[in-house]
């Protein structure tokens, strides 16, 4: 197995004394896991920030073996983690994607939408500039995994787009959040739901 592709870092778990198991999303090959030797070192650890765009190279002797992974940083999102709201949003969208998607199955629409949400978080001067995109990303994940919501059940900003005030945005996030919790983020997904709860609480405080 040999794969070389651009990818978005989604999740990182320490492994052993120095290594890390990294899960990253590629456009054509879906979610891919790999072992990064020295992943806890000062040199490599900044590359493994969730939401970073990297060039990854996965190598394994068999398809059943966890691939060794080497990475080159293309774009760092580390500066966004200095701000509470962007940090919470990045933590949530990467955790959701890592938790919800099965490995090695391509979801190009999810990849494109995730790239778009991260780009919006990066570019927008305030949360209102990316919060609608985040709600639409949640809706897309549900649809791609077979849990699409009926159009009549959706707030206008999810059905027709356009401008929205904070009441509309929070209402949309309530709708998608209930479905995510009921259909995808069940039982063992407590940590992922906690990331979303932190984000929603920070959004509410920001607009209070």
TrEMBL record:
Residues 1-76 form the DNA replication/recombination mediator RecO N-terminal domain. Pfam families: RecO_C, RecO_N. Keywords: DNA damage, DNA recombination, DNA repair. The keyword DNA damage applies. InterPro entries: DNA_rep/recomb_RecO_N, NA-bd_OB-fold, RecO. The keyword Mitochondrion does not apply. It comes from the Bacteria. PANTHER family: DNA REPAIR PROTEIN RECO (PTHR33991:SF1). This is Recombination protein O N-terminal domain-containing protein.
């Amino acid at each position: 197995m040999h794969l070389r592709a651009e990818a978005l870092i989604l999740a990182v778990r320490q492994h052993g004394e120095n290594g890390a198991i990294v899960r990253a999303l590629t456009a054509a090959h879906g979610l891919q896991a790999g072992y990064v030797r020295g992943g806890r070192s000062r040199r490599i650890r900044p590359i493994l920030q969730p939401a970073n765009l990297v060039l990854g190279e996965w190598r394994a002797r068999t398809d059943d073996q966890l691939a060794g992974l080497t990475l080159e940083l293309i774009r760092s999102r580390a500066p966004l983690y200095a701000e509470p709201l962007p940090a919470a949003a990045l933590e949530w969208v990467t955790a959701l994607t890592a938790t919800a998607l099965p490995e090695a199955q391509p979801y190009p629409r999810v990849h494109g939408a995730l790239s778009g949400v991260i780009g919006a978080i990066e570019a927008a001067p305030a949360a209102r500039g990316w919060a609608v995109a985040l709600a639409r990303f949640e809706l897309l994940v549900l649809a791609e995994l077979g849990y699409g919501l009926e159009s009549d059940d959706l707030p206008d900003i999810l059905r027709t787009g356009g401008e929205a005030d904070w009441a509309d945005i929070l209402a949309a996030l309530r709708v998608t959040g209930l479905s995510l919790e009921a259909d995808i983020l069940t039982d063992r997904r407590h940590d992922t739901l906690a990331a979303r709860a932190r984000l929603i609480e920070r959004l509410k405080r920001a607009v209070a």
